[in-house]
Amino acid sequence: MFVRYEVPIDGLLQATSNELIVTFESPIKKSQELYSKQAEDYVVPPKCVPDIYNGECHANHVRKMQASFAWDWGPAFPSMGLWKTVYINAYNETYIKDVSFQVVADGDKYKFTVTVYMAPNTAKQLDGVLRITLGNNHAVDLWNFEVQGVATVGNEFIIQKEFRQLKSKYDLWWPNGYGSQVLYPLTVSMVPEDVNGAIVSKSVNVGIREVELVQKPVGNGLSFYFKINGMAIFAKGSNMIPSHILPEHSNNKTLIRKILQSAKDVHMNMIRVWGGGLYESDLLYELADEMGIMIWQDFMFACSMYPVNQEFLNTVEKEVEHQVRRLQYHSSIVLWAGNNENEAALTGNWYGTIINRTRYDADYRQLYGKTIRDVVLRNDPSRKYLSSSPTNGVKSEENDYISPNPGDNNYGDVHYYNYIFDSWDINIYPVPRFASEYGYQALPSYSSMQSVTNSSNDLFINSKFMNHRQHHPMGNIEMEFLIKSRLDMRPKVNIESYNKAFFFYTQIIQAMAVKIETEHYRQWQSYLDSAGHGMTMGALYWQLNCPWLAPTWSGIESTGKWKMLHYYAKDFFAPIIVTSHQYPTQMVDVTVVSDQPTPIFNATLKIAIFNWNSFLAVNEKVRQIDIRMGSQRLTKINMKYFLTRNAECASDYTDCFVRLTLSNTTSMIAPENFIYPVALKNAPIPFANVQIEHVEQITSTKILVSVTSDLPAVFVWLESTLAGVFSENGFTMLQQRKDIVFELENYSPLDDVVKSLHVTHLRDKAYFPSSTLI
Prior knowledge:
This protein is α+β, with helices and mostly antiparallel strands.
């Protein structure tokens, strides 16, 4: 599935009635056949996915999208057939298949290396001039290289040329939020020696940028962060899985653009293309180049051991070579990673590998430490290769690619999941160098789920329908537990009200949990603890998107609709944030984090106390601060003393909460943030009357929505049955009226927009039957 196949058809074509027949075997039967053959020697686990996945077995024996055999976020559809375009290449002499482009600093110059891969001609020898142009309309550089007597390597011509230019000639490519994304056309042409021969060429767009993965001694281990053009970058983003469970639909231009634009719009600068899916379409990488989204690119091996016979390794070599050559020129790709969680699975004995550990270790090292690594370094020495994720980076390499603890917080990247502790307690989260996976499940919106069934009974939690779509073991129980840890879920007096509340509350829990965990990682950007943990430089939550409507970890539904999590990402990934760490002792650290290299002087930090029954602040503390790049802890607050010295706050301070704001002389420079001293289920949050008061058309697709409330309200949530994005959502109402802009995907008459809108909030009376109101 991951290899481009080229079949010579000269000598086969007829003047008419040509027919191409491709015969496919069932991937389910083939995987079983390959498993049985392998098992004659030894078993390569796991045999099957967990039963709750409702999936198929032995995905690790075929080179297909591993998640198409089912995962904990998606269904099983092991596809078969042609999923990419079939086309004929007609040429007299040769044609250019792929072009690679590398940039390396060389004093005040850049050294550019261009590698050209060309199909062979009948003579198996190439003569002529290789012409390379780089530049845009303002400045085009041209190089001509004589090519004489180049022989084929294998079944292709490979020509590599180096040239240098002053750095000052070029504008640089930067990640989103750090600068512009300048792309230059790079055109490679082969001019044959025979003047009557055809000139063949290929053009790609390239960014001029330097990338480095820094792993140097810090604390009790090594750092792990990306430098782009010499600047340390805090990676903010998410993990991307296939946009559709049927791979032939993964190149849907509208959906891919919507997902990437949604990532950019919430300040993401990195996406990890996860190793259980597929190598994404050219379109995705082109858009990532244009939008400044760095790509952490896994190879497609995930959560399994894999057979290491020669036939399998030969297939892997072809796959990796093809994909690296296809994608290498993209400036957005900053890292190649061998697999997802296979080192952790091996060392953690996930699949009983301890019984034959010597053999499985040897297989692992052969596949990721040698085969894949060698192909990557041969075809792209300009980027770092990691053997796995999570991994200890160079520390794992020192251990011959298998560390005793691949999730060590002192090295590399970590994946962290915990569904049995209170997800809003910031103290449960680790302090790693780089968090490349973490997250919580949530349901899609109730209205979205209504689109996939004709019966409202199907949407009751734990119905047969809902259980079929819940693939995570204990998933519904975990979501209920996490809700009850923080929110007031009333008894099932009215099952329909309870059910709708459950849908909504899972999104609140997910959004707040990922927000708290992400802000925790950003807080540790500039600090080390006593154990040497810290200097955290990356936060990629799980997951960005999903392929169907079901309980998943995604922030974007399969329809493209944003969950509350994705709206919250716009705030917790903002260039500047003000955030807090509440300790069990009720002491609170207030921290400001900035990604901006330019300092901001004399900003105003306000720490204001509010009572749940008033829009007016009870008290506030004001401080002038200077903001520098990185994280800086500004003040420590004794929350109990800070609140209870005010008459409006009870002795147990349940009826007050704190708002943090950061501004300059003219405007807010960070999203507002809140500290809830107690679990919200214990706070006297009022049953506010929240309504949509006014809807007005600004432009054909921009709608002004005015929301009103008589009392403070939390997690105010606007929904529409029409496709679009709100400027803000899941917000706190600390004013009588708030104006929100709704950006429609397509024009709709205002009357239709009004009918489509709905608003709710945490203490919406609709969720609480009158007999249970307090």
